[in-house]
Design a protein that fits this description.
The complex is a heterodimer. By secondary structure, chain A is of the alpha/beta class. Helices cover 38% and strands 13% of the residues of chain A. The model of chain A has no long low-confidence stretch (mean pLDDT 96). The complex binds thiamine diphosphate (TPP), iron/sulfur cluster and magnesium ion (MG).
């Protein structure tokens, strides 16, 4: 869907709910500099969510949707889990895939979009839970990286299977006891970021969603590198407050603890030289563009 | 040949999908009336009569006609409005397929997850689905047949819907206008609309600007 198509048929516009009028009038489609700061002042691309009250996945969705470089030309591929229940509320094209198959679906989709729209940059972004990404779907996840498929994989890491009641996942920490993993986990949390790096991802980031500016940067980097260089991976800690026994207000503290020194989610990035070069040049271009715009504004005012 | 008739409900908590009962979709140039394949011309007149007989005839336009995907769609939206004015019929959008929490406003919207709430609330006895994605339409049509006595009509842009009581296929603006002509013909022969008086609601960015009645 191009941004020109985000328009309502005139003859039926007066029966459309207000949220869609807002989407047309004040969403940030087509704005090159869109980002988390638009939240609150522009129409967001998520209407409601069906997650538990206070679930950090909901804020993660909002930051990601605000940060996509070109939502009108993005297609999400989701997978079964708590995240999949959110997609019906999201104003970005999306496909639901069989649990674990998401990176295989995304590979085909990206290639098909390239053939169908050779002149338009179409971003494909996988967004799935840790169970889908690292357990049942690990084969598909890694094979897409080996093949250097050019799309972004985002993993909402809540360290267990939340949607089915708290089973052990590969990304669960060692010794953790969950409702349906009563004996405690026997082995270490899988080092998925390192697997991603060794499997050929050009950009890898691990972080929590406690700080919107960091999430924005990681998502933008990942999508832009995936366009030009190769596969990218972002692992976001979105703790399942329900399964770890926290209140709805405690998700943020949990993330802050996990990202402090010695924690499991201290922010880290792995970037190949080629990807770094690209990101540096984009940074320079953006800086020059903003400077020129500022000067143009100044000369108009003078 | 199936003997399963797709009649207005309430049929049961879980009515069968008509396809599992052996009902087939019409071929181009055909339609189906309650599961019986008929030439399209026959369906226009039957449909027009159903619309005029109804107390609360209502069109449910979906995302495929609400959004201006291209000029053809915009033309279809115009034809839908003309049909609503000609009968007259209410318009209630199926703007999206969200379950809508905490509560759907049944006076001004319908979604495939709770279509019966909108039908009950507005006492809709005949409805037309148009521009709703196939699987969402099938879901809604079955639920309506299960839980309400509403007669369902699909103005489908593709191969038609077995689960509607009456279904056209390959819908275009021209076909919608042919239906309008069938309505006008019946009216000219003295058939009067039995529709209750109503006010079509209007909305803009601020919410309801004309309340439904
Ligand atoms: C092929 C298949 N296997 C198993 C399931 C059952 N299932 C549904 S959600 C889920 C767990 C999801 O865990 P995760 O990917 O971590 O997402 P979360 O709910 O934690 O966000 C499972 C196993 C399924 N839907 N499909
Ligand atoms: S079960 Fe956990 S991950 Fe799923 S919505 Fe609730 S808090 Fe979030
Ligand atoms: Mg999980």
């Amino acid at each position: 869907m191009s941004k020109e198509k985000i328009a309502i048929c005139e003859d039926l516009a007066d029966i459309m709910p207000p949220e869609y009028h807002e989407l047309v009038e004040s969403a940030t489609f087509g704005n090159q500099d869109r980002g988390w700061k638009d939240i609150g002042s522009s129409k967001e691309l998520i209407e409601q969510h069906s997650l538990c009250a206070g679930c950090p996945e909901s804020i993660a969705f909002r930051y990601i949707l605000a940060s996509l470089p070109a939502p009108e030309n993005t297609v999400f591929v989701g997978s079964t889990g708590c995240t999949s229940l959110v997609f019906p509320h999201v104003a970005v094209q999306n496909i639901h895939s069989l649990f674990g198959n998401q990176n295989a679906i995304a590979s085909g989709l990206k290639r098909a979009l390239k053939c169908r729209f050779p002149d338009i940059e179409k971003d494909v972004v996988v967004l799935a839970g840790d169970g889908a990404t690292v357990d049942i779907g690990l084969d598909m996840t890694m094979q897409s990286w080996f093949r250097q498929e050019k799309f972004t994989t985002i993993c909402f890491d809540n360290e267990l299977y939340a949607n089915t009641g708290g089973q052990e996942s590969g990304l669960m920490q060692k010794g953790f006891v969950a409702k349906m993993a009563p004996k405690g986990k026997n082995f270490e949390k899988v080092r998925l970021a390192e697997i991603a790096r060794e499997s050929g991802c050009a950009y890898v980031a691990v972080l929590t969603v406690s700080k919107p500016n960091r999430v924005e940067q990681a998502i933008k980097n990942a999508v832009l590198v995936a366009r030009e260089v190769g596969p990218t991976f972002v692992q976001l800690y979105t703790p399942c407050i329900l399964e770890i026994g926290k209140q709805s207000m405690e998700g943020l503290d949990e993330m802050k603890d996990a990202e402090s020194i010695g924690g499991r989610f201290v922010q880290k990035e792995y970037i190949t030289d080629e990807a770094q070069k690209l990101l540096d040049s984009i940074k320079e271009e953006t800086k020059a563009r903003k400077k020129a715009a500022k000067e143009a504004k100044k000369s108009v005012n003078a | 040949m199936s003997h399963y008739e797709v009649k207005a409900g309430p049929e049961a908590f879980l009515p069968p999908a008509a396809a599992t009962m052996g009902n087939v979709l019409p071929d181009p140039g055909e339609a189906h009336i309650e599961g019986r394949i008929v030439p399209e011309e026959e369906a226009y007149e039957y449909c027009a009569r159903k619309l005029l007989e109804a107390k609360v005839p209502t069109i449910f336009p979906g995302p495929l006609v609400l959004w201006k995907w291209n000029d053809h769609v915009a033309e279809k939206a115009t034809a839908i409005r003309e049909l609503a004015n000609a009968v007259p019929m209410r318009l209630i959008p199926m703007a999206d397929y969200r379950p809508k929490y905490p509560k759907i406003d049944a006076a001004v919207e319908i979604n495939p997850n709770h279509p019966n709430l909108t039908i009950w609330h507005n006492k809709i006895d005949v409805c037309i689905f148009v521009g709703v994605h196939c699987h969402q339409a099938n879901l809604a049509l079955k639920m309506i047949r299960a839980a309400t006595d509403c007669y369902t009509i699909a103005m489908c842009a593709q191969a038609g819907h077995e689960d509607a009581c009456l279904s056209f296929r390959d819908a275009t603006p021209e076909k919608i206008r042919t239906l309008i002509k069938a309505v006008e013909k019946l009216k000219s022969e003295g058939v009067k609309s039995q529709a209750n008086d109503f006010t079509q609601f209007k909305m803009d960015r601020t919410g309801l600007i004309v309340k439904p009645s």
